[in-house]
Structures
1.
Amino acid sequence: MAEDMQDIGDDKTLLLVDDDEAFLRRLAKAMEKRGFEVEIAGSVAAGRAIATNRPPAYAVCDLRLEDGNGLDVVEVIREKRPDSRIVVLTGYGAIATAVAAVKIGATDYLSKPADATDITNALLANGADLPPPPENPMSADRVRWEHIQRVYELCDRNVSETARRLNMHRRTLQRILAKRSPR
């Protein structure tokens, strides 16, 4: 790893935006231990307010929040502070949203579960250096399971509608939903 990769610099301000309160608090503690001055926001509205009044040097924004899209916060940060480094997090990794995040100004894009080390590496990576791959990425089976769960939730837990949207037989989907999540 590059020597300057772990150099935070003079401005250590970090904005964390996520509506998962337990994850947000754990990540805030971990990032404070790494030398960041952390501010947290549990919604797009709160994230936009902080970004407008106190634009951070670093930011980590969840893509999907209860009150909207985390990319709205990224836009405000980029507008107020073009030199900031921003990582977008999401539990629903997709190429289209990754492209949208980078076009709007995100520095990197990570799928959940991402830990504090992955996030720190992404925030502090040089432009040319890519951060190292995660220590324990999700398995393909886990990614598939997460996608099915997401579509199932978006269909208000309606098995028939979920099966139709996934182009899958309803009984096959029921068997998948009945099993425990893969590692």
Note: The chain has a mean pLDDT of 83.
2.
Amino acid sequence: MDTKGKASGKKINWLHLLGFMFGVMVIGSLAGIANAGNITTWYATLEKPPFNPPNSLFGPVWTVLYALMGVGIYLVWKSPDSPQRKKAIQVFIVQLVLNFCWSFIFFYFHLIGWAAIEIVLLLGMIIWMILIFRRVDKLAAYLQLPYLLWVSFATLLNVSIWWLNR
């Protein structure tokens, strides 16, 4: 975004931008809130690898990632109508649903192995989303790179926890 309130050469509608950011953060927060009780109970009893971050790190990281996702989908949504834009929005929705479901598979149902399979699917959808976003709005794609890196790390963490607790 430049100093004149433009992103990717287009004027920013701040209300829409905040709406997209808020909407994505609400969806992510709902999964987190619904499963919070299992973090201090069931999750605390699992054996974890030495690189497992403190629980206090997850909330702030996910807040930033959901905000970046919101900005990214806003930029795509603001782009001219095209088949690529439509596909980018569809892929975004699918990856967001997978993101939402992972928390329930892992924390609510305690299906660590199934969660590992699901997060690999999510990782693939994130890569696809970035590739499709790039065709529509490069900034939207680049804003998803921290999400890709974090979910790559989360995939390693999920698989490691499954391995240690199988």
Note: The radius of gyration is 17 Å.
